[in-house]
């Protein structure tokens, strides 16, 4: 297991400083940058005794292995890996669970975007298989714009077993599939719920589909046969939001 990792991008760094400052080991800032977007970061860091170290753009590019760092990088202790036991604790303490299951989403950009959608929609936690899934990489944190630090990500050993356990705890699982009998907008999504999304192209794996209580589809009017998984996830999550506040 890695003892440390990097987080970059203004929103991602700000989220770590606000929600988990004890994880921060070092902070690097583009030399000469003192604008209104980074000054709040510097103030938060200083309040925790973290000094910003100036660095050249080339140095930051090399550290991040990317040019998308927005001039700010932190070195952090890895976040705690959440497991099935942590998921049970969340269920014990949540009256109306709203969960997102991502089956086989291996692209870190897609995972980051899904976490951002989940945070915006008020999801309590995201569940992914320990294998065959992207983890919390710097790219995921950057794309998630801070959501990766506040949305619990549960990495489970056996996704099908976890789905069955959710059902035992009274959580209804709605999986997305093109061959579904009903559409997203016809389904009742108001109770304790998990939305299960598969990887783009492949969709939910057979065993995961079989573990769902119902299968739903997003009605498609054009010639495109499928949507990017993060786009489809956003549509599904906010239909749940619409039904719950309606």
Automatic annotation (TrEMBL):
Record localization: Cytoplasm
Q: Does the keyword Transmembrane apply?
A: no
Positions annotated to bind S-adenosyl-L-methionine: 198, 218, 227
- Identify the EC number(s): 2.1.1.185
Q: SMART domains annotated for this entry?
A: SpoU_sub_bind
GO terms classed as biological process = methylation
* Keywords linked to the UniProt accession: Cytoplasm, Methyltransferase, rRNA processing, S-adenosyl-L-methionine, Transferase
Query: Which chemical reaction does it catalyze?
Result: guanosine(2251) in 23S rRNA + S-adenosyl-L-methionine = 2'-O-methylguanosine(2251) in 23S rRNA + S-adenosyl-L-homocysteine + H(+)
Recorded family membership? Belongs to the class IV-like SAM-binding methyltransferase superfamily. RNA methyltransferase TrmH family. RlmB subfamily.
Q: Return the HAMAP family for the record.
A: 23SrRNA_methyltr_B
State the protein's purpose. Answer: Specifically methylates the ribose of guanosine 2251 in 23S rRNA.
Q: What is this protein called?
A: 23S rRNA (guanosine-2'-O-)-methyltransferase RlmB
